[in-house]
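User:
I study polymers; will you set down one protein's sequence and backbone structure tokens?

Assistant:
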Amino acid sequence: MTVAELIKKMVVYSEGNLHDIAHFLKVYAYAKTIGECEHLDKDTQLVLEIAAVLHDIACPLCREKYGSIDGKYQEREGAVLAADFLEGTGFSEALVRRVSYLVGHHHTLTQIEGMDYQILIEADYLVNVDESHYDKDNIRNMYEKVFRTGTGKELLQNIYLCNPSLI
């Protein structure tokens, strides 16, 4: 299965929820961009792109089960849902394990191991800044304490920290 086919499958899974679809597509675009600009190897780039598409797979279940899409709920439910979603796609067991791990940790900002994990955090945050209207102090804090890639920092700086409407 290709990433494009996986995106189509995730759109169907999202059952017309425009916010969820737009969100994962934007995170995917940022993740793909950062990964390519940081020159990830082909296998890591593939894991990153798949994880970006699936990172919020638990949102529909969490809305129903908890009445909330809080990150702790997404992480609790997401890893298993991601693994189930990838069943029968032809991706290796190692890839499925890593994607599931990333989906199950994409709101955990400590002990980030691997460029795929780092970039997923950065890409999701770049989208969440806009969707959740974070203030400049929050953005500066993330820039200084969490962002590590040159590309992610450059995007955050040029999209949000240079934005006069956030001053």
Notes: The chain has one domain: 3-166. The radius of gyration is 15 Å.
